[in-house]
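Tutorial handout. Part one gives the primary structure; part two gives the three-dimensional structure as C-alpha cells.
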Amino acid sequence: MGTVPFSPYFTEERDCPLLRKRNTVSVDFMNDSGGKAVVRAKKIFLFFLLAASALVFGCRESSPVKGIELVVSFSETPLTDRLYTDIQYRWRFRDSYKKIDQNCAVFVHFWHRSNLIFHDNHRPEIPVPRWEPGQEYTYTRRIYIPQFIDALDPEFKGPDTLKLSIGLSFPQDKSGKPLKKIYEEKLKVFPPPPDTPVIIYEDGWSDFEIDPESYLKRWRWTAKEARCIIDNPRRDALLMIRGGVMKKGVQDQKVIVKINNLLLDEFIPRRSHFERFYRIDQGMLGEEDRFSLVISTDKTFIPARVIPGSGDERELGIQVSFLYFR
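Part two.
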C-alpha cells in the first residue's frame, strides 16, 4: 500500500492576518491505488504557493517574551512521522513576568528545513490576560505528525529533524512582527517501525474524492458496510476514524464500528463531520495475524434522489476521510 510523502495541515490562525480562515485549507494526503479524484489542481497549486510565501515572509518573529519558562513533552517516544501523540505544555511564570493584557494565541510551528509542515496553533485553556507571576499552568493536546520522511531516499541516513517553535501571537501588534518566540527545540523524528500495522481496504469502499472547499477535503464513500483488514500488532493500539454523514438528505444516520464482529461503538454524529479516537485492548484483536474492522451505517442514500441536479446513482453510506491504527 503506497503512500504520498507529504501531508501539510493549514488551519485558522486568527491573530496572524495572513492565516485567516477564508484563505486556509486542511489537506490530508493518504495512500491511493488508482482511485478517481475530483481535483482543482490550479487552485491547490496557487493556494500552497501563496500560503508558503505568507508563512515564510509574512508572520515574522520578534524579541522573546520575558519571565516565562515552557516545558514541552510528548506521550510517545521516540517520535516518528505518521504518528498521533499527546503534547503537554507546562507554562511556568517567574516573579519577573509582566502580565499581558492582549488575548494572545499560542503559535506552535513544526518546521522541516524551511517548510512549515504542520502546527498546533491554539488558544490556551487559561486566557493569556489571566496568566499571573509565580503560577504554573499545564494542559495537553493531541497532534498528528504527518509523513515527511522518505526512508527510501539513498541520502537518508537515519532520524530526520523537526524544529519546534512556540510563542505568542499578539493581535494588536503594529510592528509587523506579531509572533514573539518563547521556546525552540530540535526534535529527532524516525520513520515508523517496520511492524507498523498496514490497513487494507477490502469490500464496500468507493474511490477517493477530493474537494478542497469541503470540510473533509478528501474522503471515500462507504457502502452500507465497508470492511478493512489490518495487521494485528499484538499489543494495545490507538484507532482513529475521521469522517462525515449526509445530514441534508438522511436524518439521524448512525455510524457503527465493529472489530472482529464485536461492537466497538455506535453513534449518531451531531454534525455532518466527526472524529473518534478509541484505545483498543489487545484482547479484542484476537489471535490471528490480521483482524477485521467494519464501518457501517443503518441508512444509505442515492445522491440523484436527494441532491438536486445530481446524476449519481450510487447507493452510499458515510464518508471516511482518514483511518489511523497504530
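Part three, for discussion. Residues 225 and 296 are 4 Å apart (CA to CA). The chain has two helices and 19 strands.
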